[in-house]
Write a structure and sequence with these properties.
285 residues; 15 helices
Length: 285
């Protein structure tokens, strides 16, 4: 029996080492291109265009990043980062607010046709932005929201997926909680604020991370409704930095801009990592 236990422990130890080795290999595989982009953002143009590219960061870090922040093809990079941040935060907060209130109404209010409305909302999953982009553009143009943060945000704040997720969460909450709140004299909004919102915290955090990255990476819609360079987003700015025709690309500045564009989503994931993971794995409240 002792020998058998020893063998089991040894086997478990080998499996643990193999698991960690695979994890480290996967991390290196994912992070190596990012590291190369960072190295490219710290060297000079000749060092990039004449291979091999150095594997050690150069001495042009501050110079290249200052050039990236203060310059741009049509607008400074810092301004495009600001526009992307406003757009991503607006889309994220708007989607979560509308979705959680919609799910609350569908689950806890008995009104005629509530399931019809829910399935109509759910059916919008089959209509991505690209399908309805022409009528959406017409509506935004008629309201005078072109070249504005409101025009960037409002058409993208509805989310059938988030509504569905919040509805499924609310369906798992015992009816006794609603009954107890009603007996204590709490109105619907008091029940929503004091009970449902705290219980939805991890789900809100998980959706916040996912929706922020979704809003940050938007390209087609901002490209369509913004003609003023001061309203460009960072994704548009990176695309505009690439040369056309015989122009020469300033690759260190482009790589520095790409690294800067990656920092806000990474910061959101890092700061909300624990709640994000809990929101994805928790199935019972």
């Amino acid at each position: 029996m002792a020998v058998q236990k020893s063998g089991m422990v040894e086997k478990r130890g080998i499996g643990l080492w193999l698991t960690h080795a695979g994890l480290i290999f996967g991390i290196l595989l994912v992070c190596f291109p990012i590291y190369i982009a960072f190295v490219a953002s710290t060297v000079t143009q000749p060092e990039i265009v004449h291979p091999p590219l150095p594997l050690i960061p150069g001495d042009k870090f501050f110079e290249n990043y200052w050039d990236a922040l203060s310059s741009g093809v049509n607008a400074p990079v810092w301004l495009m980062l600001f526009n992307s941040t406003i757009m991503a935060l607006g889309i994220t907060v708007g989607k979560i607010a509308i979705s959680i209130l919609s799910a609350f109404a569908i689950v806890y209010f008995r009104f005629p046709g509530r399931m019809v409305f829910f399935w109509l909302i759910f059916m919008t999953l089959m209509l991505p932005v690209e399908v309805r982009i022409v009528p959406t553009y017409q509506v935004i143009a008629d309201f005078g929201m072109l070249n504005s943060h409101a025009g960037l945000i409002l058409p993208l704040i509805a989310s059938a997926t988030a509504t569905f997720l919040f509805r499924q969460l609310f369906l798992t909450i015992p009816e006794e909680l609603a009954e107890a709140a009603r007996i204590d004299g709490a109105g619907p909004m008091r029940f929503f604020i004091d009970i449902l919102l705290p219980m939805s915290r991890t789900n809100i955090a998980a959706l916040f991370v996912i929706l922020f990255i979704y809003g940050w990476n938007q390209y087609l819609w901002p490209l369509l409704i913004t003609t003023d360079p001061d309203m460009n987003t960072i994704v548009m700015g990176i695309k505009q930095m690439f040369p056309s025709g015989d122009d020469i690309a300033d690759w260190p500045v482009i790589m520095a801009t790409a690294i800067l564009a990656m920092l806000p989503p990474v910061a959101v994931v890092i700061f909300m990592q624990k709640l994000f993971v809990r929101g994805l794995v928790e199935s019972e409240k």
